[in-house]
Amino acid sequence: MIESLQELVARIPDGAMMVVPPDYAGVAIAATRALIARGVKDLHLVASPSSGIQADLLIAAGCVKTMEAAAVTLGEFGVAPAFNAAVRNGTIRMLDSTCPAIHAALNAGEKGLPFIPLRGLIGSDVLKHRREWKVTQNPFADKEDPVVLLPALNPDVALFHSAMADCEGNVWFGRRREVLVMAHASRKVLVTVEKVLDTCFFDREEMVAGVLPALYVDAIAVVPKGAWPLALDEGYEADAEAQAAYAKGALTWEMA
Fold first, then answer.
1. 99 CB burial (10 A radius; 0-12, 13-18, 19+)
2. pLDDT tens-digit profile of 164-191?
């Protein structure tokens, strides 16, 4: 289960639907760099529910065919330049979504449901551009009560970074529940970690609620500072200087 970073990213084929977490929830930046170096193509990248530098790097490198997200932004550092340029130039297909819609669709995928209802999209411009989302009548209502049906999201791959795994392949995700849902909904789960501990997390009562069982994990690669320049819970703070340099230098920026 524990393998090299190159072996791990080799499990992600061209054209895969890959779901990734938001910037604050354990982003596998080192694996992203390795994917770019490998030359992966035509990804359908799903942000759960938003992305930043990870999506921008993949788009800048020509790895993304479809982007599905509630937002792609560098936050306090400004717009995501490669993403914005790709949308303007039509070089990627953008599937606009919302945070509740992506979370709900992944919840449906997690539970093995073909679709899930959601109310808040009705009347929005987002709904106008997602023809696969269907407005229908609530079958349990006695009066008019429209709801939106969203098809489930079952990505081919979930990719994220964690502070640690244990010797049995269980992965710590802590409070980041979106990572758990991503893993449950996806066909394959690939994780980079800071370290592997010689213990079993399930022997420690205080950790159990924040552990993704090895049953759901296909491969782990040990990559110290694997989320840099983003932060990692129980690991390190974000490198604001490096992120600002990316925002300023855009497509010419290089990671140290």
1. middle
2. 999 999 999 999 999 999 999 999 999 9
**Spatial separation of the C-alpha atoms in residues 64 and 200, rounded to whole Å:** 37
Phi, psi angle pair for 246, to nearest 5°? -65, -45
Cα dihedral sign, 62-104-124-48 = negative
3-state SS assignment for residue 73: strand
Q: 124: which residues sit within 8 A by CB, 6+ positions away?
A: 98
pLDDT in tens, 56-108: 999 999 999 999 999 999 999 999 999 999 999 999 999 999 999 999 999 99
| CA 167/CA 171 separation, integer angstroms | 10
Question: Hey, which bits of the chain come out as E strands?
Answer: 17-20, 43-47, 50-51, 64-69, 71-72, 93-96, 115-118, 134-137, 146-151, 157-166, 171-172, 189-197, 211-212, 219-222
Tokens coding 253:
């920026």
Token match 């290089």: residue?
254
The residue with tokens 């244990």 is 166
Q: Are strands 115-118 and 146-151 parallel, antiparallel or unpaired?
A: antiparallel
